[in-house]
Design brief:
Strands 3-6-7-8 form a 4-stranded antiparallel sheet. The chain has a two-stranded antiparallel ribbon with strand order 1-2. The termini are far apart. The chain is an alpha+beta fold and about 325 residues long. Helix 3 packs parallel to helix 9. The longest helix is centred in the first third of the chain and has 28 residues, at about 55-80. The protein contains 10 helices and 8 strands. It has a domain at about 5-175 and about 235-285.
Length: about 325
């Protein structure tokens, strides 16, 4: 058996993967990806949204939604940069590299490194490539490619949202987000310093579901930071629809990559929504204001920045002053 290899880019970083059975290993990897996990989470927790544990159910949906979105976009990025070696790309990428590739796919940047077989590195171009691997009529392929292209662009925009990412990380790392949404209302003061009467307030919307969490704002590089309290609203029922569509998308991209990698097309099934309007369902559950931060403001001109050496010296002094 000849030792095989595949060279590709991960973001802007060259990478080479070697294996005696690289083609078969790559196919086994793709065949093992089962997006049914995300539909299972959706169907398991949607029924608990009216129970006493509704906030826990909503949190489980939020975490799965974040994980599913990253999985979808990582596979999309691999399809653009390493369609013949998805296993290598998926095991190699870093978060910052995935973000860069997604930005490049959003803008169809000419600077985005891609596999020579990829003519159009945009999300819409990938959707066309995936649908071209199906046996649907040309008009249906075109309709589905347009729908998936729009869908993936919306998921990518959410993935690139720094506030949404901070919230997801707060759930994923240490469960440091508080559960529950908020409602925001505004109104004119009858007189200075006196809160408006309730009937004078105008609601900007809200949600029972959401979270409150802290995210770091850099004041002077990463050495000086301020933990800002932020709140987000979201619709767990919208995430249920989103998880179903993401699972479909993952399944279809994987089927396309399996065919690209040499698998039998007859073994590669594609899942698509029954109606075109289904692509919009995740965002048809309005929550009004999606995020807010009423926290105090700390700016760089409020602080006296310390150098790294000054911080180290300060820490050394503190340790010497600790009681025995």
């Amino acid at each position: 058996m000849e030792l095989g290899h595949a060279a590709y880019f991960v973001g802007n970083r060259p990478q080479v993967t070697w294996a005696w059975d690289l083609v078969e290993r790559n196919l086994r990897f793709l065949q093992g990806i089962d997006a049914g996990y995300f539909t299972h989470i959706a169907s398991t927790h949607v029924g608990l949204l009216e129970s006493e544990d509704r906030h826990f159910a909503a949190a489980a949906l939020r975490v799965a939604y974040g994980q599913a979105t990253e999985t979808l976009l990582a596979l999309a990025a691999a399809a653009v940069q390493a369609p013949q070696c998805v296993v290598g790309w998926m095991l190699s990428y870093r978060n910052d590299e995935l973000l860069d590739v997604v930005r490049g796919m959003m803008s169809a940047s000419d600077e985005l490194e891609r596999d020579p077989s990829v003519a159009d590195p945009s999300l819409e171009g990938l959707a066309e490539s995936v649908m071209s691997a199906t046996s649907y009529e040309p008009s249906k392929r075109e309709q589905l490619a347009a729908g998936f292209g729009r869908l993936w662009r919306r998921f990518a925009a959410e993935f690139l949202d720094e506030i949404a990412t901070s919230e997801y990380n707060s759930f994923k790392h240490g469960m440091r987000a508080s559960l529950g949404g908020f409602t925001l209302s505004i109104g004119p003061e009858a007189e200075f310093g006196v809160a408006p009467a309730p009937e004078a307030m105008r609601s900007l919307g809200g949600s029972v579901f959401g979270s409150a969490f802290y995210r770091l704002e850099n004041l002077d590089g990463r050495l000086h930071q301020f933990p800002r309290r932020t709140t987000r609203n979201w619709s767990p029922s919208g995430m249920v629809y989103g998880l179903q569509l993401i699972a479909m998308s993952i399944h279809d991209i994987v089927s396309y990559l399996r065919i690209t990698g040499g698998d039998d097309p007859a073994r590669c099934r594609f899942d698509t929504p029954l109606a075109p309007e289904s692509f919009e369902l995740p965002w048809q559950q309005p929550v009004g204001v999606t995020s807010s931060s009423m926290d105090i403001v700390v700016r760089r001109d409020h602080i006296q920045p310390l150098s790294r050496d000054e911080v180290v010296k300060l820490l050394a002094q503190t340790r010497r002053q600790e009681p025995m």
